[in-house]
Design brief:
Phosphatase_SCO2771, globular, nine-stranded mixed β-sheet, 273 residues, alpha/beta, two-stranded antiparallel ribbon, Phosphatase
Length: 273
């Protein structure tokens, strides 16, 4: 799992709380209010890029803002239109507790697990640490549909994206470079291959984000994941009962800053020491 520093003081929650606020993973985050509100409107308008593969009910903008204030901790004030916004650090910690508890159950039951990220540049270390801990506990970590590809249109012209695995963590890549994505199509391809395979493997748990998580939750798989304050769909999915846990955090912070979060998550799962 690399050089993960465990917060082993008497109150590790307080220590992590301080760290999350200091690094702005939670608290006063860098994600601007304008971007948050714009993306909430896109979800309400059912823009496919902001549904994350979920078939959501008809949310109003007011309902979405209230839900994001309740589950993520953004400002509930509809008059707050620009500037800074927030993620409630205690909501982050509560969700990490819940995610850790579910990962711990997976470890004790030796469940079959699937991990995937649309933020490989920043969050890959989190997923790899979870993968290593679950493998060590005897879990089966699936890696189906490697190499499955499809064309996308980018500002630089058409490109091919393919599913690639870093150990057992799925992501999208182009020409050897891992890419950010909201797209649910890769997870749908993964699940199609699993359905069509003769092995009988099907995930008991998915740990993911963005469209990887949304498509898994839509397929009825128990899913826990991470989401930023400008990505309302997974929070809406949690509110609708399709996503088990959504951890609110800034998903664009330097990877090293997530190390104490990793240690806390694995500690809550009972997978350290």
């Amino acid at each position: 799992m690399g050089n993960v520093t465990r917060p082993d003081q008497p109150d590790d929650r307080a220590l992590l709380r301080e760290h999350l606020l200091k690094t702005r993973i939670a608290g006063d985050v860098a994600t601007p209010r304008e971007g948050n509100l714009a993306n909430y409107r896109k979800m309400v308008q059912k823009d496919p890029g902001y549904q994350f593969g979920l078939t959501l009910k008809d949310w109003t903008f007011a309902e979405t803002l209230e839900m994001m204030a309740r589950l993520c901790g953004v400002s509930p004030d509809p008059r707050h239109l620009r500037g800074a916004d927030t993620i409630d650090v205690d909501l982050t910690l509560d969700a990490l507790d819940a995610m850790g508890a579910r990962i711990g159950i997976a470890a004790r039951r030796r469940e079959t697990v699937l991990l995937a990220t649309g933020h490989p540049d920043t969050l890959m270390g989190v997923y790899r640490a979870v993968e290593d801990a679950l493998r060590a506990a005897g879990c089966v970590v699936l890696a189906p549909a490697a190499g499955w590809s499809y064309p996308v249109t980018t500002p630089f012209g058409p490109q091919i994206r393919e599913i690639v695995y870093t150990s057992g963590v799925a992501a999208l890549g182009t020409d050897g470079t891992l890419r950010h994505t909201h797209d649910p199509h890769p997870m749908r391809a993964v699940l199609r291959e699993l359905r069509d395979a003769a092995t009988g493997h099907w995930p008991d748990l998915v740990v993911a984000d963005h469209g990887w998580a949304g498509a898994a939750g839509e397929a009825g798989i128990e899913t826990v994941g991470f989401a930023d304050s400008n990505d309302p769909a997974l929070f809406a999915g949690q509110a609708e009962g399709k996503i088990a846990v959504t951890v609110p955090l800034d998903d664009g912070i330097h990877p090293d800053h997530y190390r104490p979060l990793i240690a806390y998550l694995l500690d809550r799962a009972g997978l350290t020491g």
